[in-house]
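INFO worker-7 received task bundle
INFO bundle size: 2
INFO processing item 0
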Amino acid sequence: MASHRRPKQPSRTRVTVLTTAAAAAVALSANAANAAPSAKLSKDEVKAKVDKLYEQAEQATEKYDGAKEKQQKLQKEISTIQDNVARGQQELNKLRDGLGSMATAQYRSGGIDPSVQLFLSSDPDSFLDKASTLDQLSAQQVESLKKIQDKQRELAQERSEATEKLKDLATTRTELGKKKNEVKGKLAEAQRLLNTLTAKEKAALAAEQERANRSSTQRPDLGNSTAASGRAAAAFSAAQSVIGSPYVYGASGPSSFDCSGLTSWAYAQAGVSIPRTSESQAGIGARLSMSQLQVGDLVFFYGDLHHVGLYAGNGQVLHAPHTGAVVRYESIGNMPFQFGVRV
């Protein structure tokens, strides 16, 4: 006998899911069909974006340099404190040993009450001499105890200071890693954009950069500009000696540089120590207007002061510009000048 059972109907939930999925598929297909392909950037547009990324990378580089400088400073301070603690512990041990020796000597002299010793003594004068010695030992013990307490407090303070600096160092290392990754990320994005260009466009951009590097490494007409001082002249001369060296973030010579790496290295060759970062270098002297600049003065650019160079005279700056460029001359008007500083 044939079965007249009705076929099983799909559940309402299943129908809803299938309907929703089908609708979504149709919508995606429609969007895909209607979506316009992303327009390819022109060579000039890519260059503009890459230049902006290089500027952002340099901003991050200066923060990276600052964190690196702080890390090195903290490491030196921690090492000094740890050395002091080690020496202090040795001194404390000697003081404790000395106190122990005095206590032993006093114990061996007898633990009898002094008045009883005087009563039993056959030679009162000799006993009084011994009693005087005992008083002297007691005074030395008091003084030793005081020294031990002072040394313990001093060591506790130094250990506490070292602990705080170690925490600061850990934070600084984290910041250093973040800034390094930020720089690398900006440079990677710039490279990704450059990779969208054709071989012909890449060659054209490379040729432009090469021409800029080559023409700007030749000494321009600097007029009769004079140096701010003998050391400024020596610093400027040192910077001239590395013209053509590549820009590398975080580098401070002698074969590659970032902007503040070049200026700090140049002045170090003149026997002058200045801070590592552009922001710190901006605070080491009186600010100068463009009309007050002399050769060797530091010149700062952009509102956040993330770029620095050396004034070369006649409206020119000698600097390490950005990734892909070399140490070279450039017109001071090519960047937003803020002020100068005389070292």
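INFO item 0 finished
INFO processing item 1
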Amino acid sequence: MSMAGNLRKVAGLDRVGGLRKAARLGRRQARVDLSHPARSPLGSAVVNCVTYQDGARVPGGRDLVEAVERVRKSDDGFVWLGMHEPTDDEFAGIAELFDLHPLAVEDAVEAHQRPKLERYGETLFAVFKTVCYVEHKELTATSEVVSTGEIMVFVGPAFVITVRHGRHGSLGPLREELEAHPQQLAKGPAAVLHAIADHVVDDYLSVTDAVQEDIDQVETDVFADSGERLDPGRIYQLKRELLELKRAVAPLDRPIQELATKPIRVIDPEIQAYFRDVSDHLLRATEQIAAFDELLNSILQAHLAQVSVAQNEDMRRITAWAALIAVPTMVTGVYGMNFTYMPELRSRFGYPLVLVVIGVACLALYRGFKRNGWL
């Protein structure tokens, strides 16, 4: 049985002794890389567990506890354990084996954390918010644009533990990419932490590029000459989704700055240079989100201005027609007073003459309103 298979049997044990006993169960089944979601068994919190030495994957199955003790004693290599939404019971044995701080364990299991970086002795605990663009045929007032998840990373001198929450953000492709560059993986657990941070921030840039297309489409619709008024709910929905993206991206700036500049025991100075590159990409994503927010405010103001102009035009048309109706109403109202001595009451051409006067007055008003754009 593979190391990942052994670990799935022992993840809920509280004692290292029980963990060791269960981890020694049969090894007849060939090891399978479960890092990709298509190869991950449903209902299993453990996605993968692999030992690396000199940047290369150690082949074959191995007793988990023995592997951890070996890399700790020899100071050679590290263990990378990946989990997906573990429960308290599933994570208890892991926390005891790797001596993880209870507060960090609680955050990793409960999730819903802000991006942050915390130090517990020689162990780093980092929280990353993952984002994913939700494809949609047409943006509506209820469309979901951005979906978020979380990746918690425990980094120690001889181990990396990743705990993922959400349906996206699989680290399987990232693991395969790192294994294709053993010289980078040979730099230790800090290299894995950098790769995860770089992967997450690159996803931020991809999502912002996709969101920009939605914003461009809304902007085009606002200034289109089709005569149809844009639903303002689409703009508000984009602003809400952009706020969700901002909550994931903005708080990560401080943790990345700490990883790039402050001396940390488990982070090699050579790796810190890579974190500075991640910081530059994160700054670009943050600036794009801020620019999008300002642009959406401008689009919303332009839309409201268009609505106000359209209402003014409607009022002018109503006023013009009311003026046209007022002329015959006034004339007929005068002749409806039924006084005995009124001019033209007994004239043969009085009635048609009044109609002609009404028609000429209405025509003159109509042409005047038309010339001034009121009709």
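INFO item 1 finished
INFO post-check item 1: The first strand starts at residue 46 and ends at 53.
INFO post-check item 1: Residues 1-43 have pLDDT under 50 and may be disordered.
INFO worker-7 idle
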